[in-house]
Design goal:
Layout: H1 2-48, H2 51-90, H3 93-116
């Protein structure tokens, strides 16, 4: 019985050999086509040279957006906290909170406009 199993294994090796050769040829063909495509894309990006510049510009724009949004949120949060503190100390329930939150919003907008470079910090 061991001999039949051994013959079957060698017989399957003989049958898989042409399949492996065909597969190897297909893989080689695919590798060759992929390398040609990579080379053509690489030459296009080398000619234009804007891909690294675009990613740096996107990162810079995203950083600026996060900075501006955090300044606006911080202004509103600080104004709301001061208003809550004033309401708590003076027992003027919602009025201090509302007034200082609006003042915080205005201060946040002014900071955003200054940071964006639309208005100068000097008067």
């Amino acid at each position: 019985m061991a001999e039949n199993t051994n013959h079957g294994a060698s017989g399957s090796r003989d049958q898989s050999s042409p399949d492996e050769a065909a597969l190897s040829a297909r893989l080689g063909s695919l590798d060759h086509r992929l390398s040609e495509i990579r080379d053509s894309r690489k030459s296009k990006t080398d000619q234009s040279g804007t891909e690294s510049g675009d990613s740096a510009a996107r990162a810079s724009a995203m950083a600026l957006g996060f900075r501006l949004s955090s300044e606006l949120i911080a202004g509103v949060a600080v104004g709301a906290a001061i208003g809550w503190g004033v309401d708590h100390l003076l027992s003027t329930s919602p009025f201090g909170f509302i007034v200082f939150m609006l003042l915080g919003f205005v201060a946040g907008v002014v900071n955003v406009v200054r940071s964006a470079g639309v208005a100068s910090g000097k008067r």
